[in-house]
Amino acid sequence: TVGSRPVALDRALDCGSAGVIYLFICKHCCSGREAPEFYFGRTVDGLHERVGGHRAHFEAENFEYGKSALALHVFEERPDHFSGGLEGFHLCMVGSTRPQD
């Protein structure tokens, strides 16, 4: 469930799949009483490539965090967890997409 809406996961997809709609959910926000922060994204490339792009923005010394909604969230809201990078998020594959969608 994201917010109050159920989200179905596509278990046929994996990190090598291309054309994926994906969801990151902040583990740190989930652990408290507050509503979890989440981020939907989509890629026509392999999911592992796109996730690598998100991961690269968790470098505070290069100010790369401002280029990723995920890194910016952790940097501003959970700075004590910033060095953990994407380890602070659950990654879910929601569905498939094509470039023209």
Could you walk me through the main structural features you see in this protein, from its secondary elements to its overall organization?
The protein is an alpha+beta fold. The protein contains 3 helices and 3 strands, in the order βαβααβ. The chain has a 3-stranded antiparallel beta sheet with strand order 2-1-3. The radius of gyration is 14 Å and the shape is globular. 16% of the residues are buried.
How are the SSEs placed, and which strands pair?
Elements: E1 18-26, H1 27-30, E2 38-46, H2 47-55, H3 69-77, E3 89-96
Antiparallel strand pairs: 1-2, 1-3
Arithmetic mean pLDDT = 83
- Poorly predicted runs of 5 or more residues: none
- Put simply, the count of helices is 3
Give a quick account of the main beta sheet: strands, pairing sense, barrel closure: 3 strands, antiparallel
Strand order of the largest sheet: 2-1-3
Structural features:
about 100 residues; about 20% helix; globular
In short:
The protein is an alpha+beta fold. The protein has 3 helices and 3 strands; from the N terminus they run βαβααβ. The longest helix has 9 residues, at 47-55.
